[in-house]
Here is the input.
Amino acid sequence: MAVSVRMSPLLEKELELAAQRQGVTKSQFIIDAVERALGRKNPYELMLQAKAEMAQDPRSAALSKTFVAEHQKAYDTERSRADLIAKLRAKHGLSAD
Here is the structure.
């Protein structure tokens, strides 16, 4: 069934951008929002369902160990930022003003 909704151009633009960020159509974004508002799509219940499905998967333990191992060392954003700036300055011949 088709439903038509009138909204301000600004609200429609926000809707379009939010849908793009999530990688869905505007229609799907609106359907998801209405389902959440009606209590048909509870994020907490979805999380519990996903965890239960993961527990049933025999590969889940191996996957969990793999992803945990990736984050043992903290990521140093300031150092990475400084390295990137230095590389860009060297590439483009800029001084460190």
In short: The CA atoms of residues 31 and 37 lie 10 Å apart. The helical segments are 9-22, 26-37, 43-56, 60-70, 77-92. Residues 77-92 form the longest helix (16 residues).
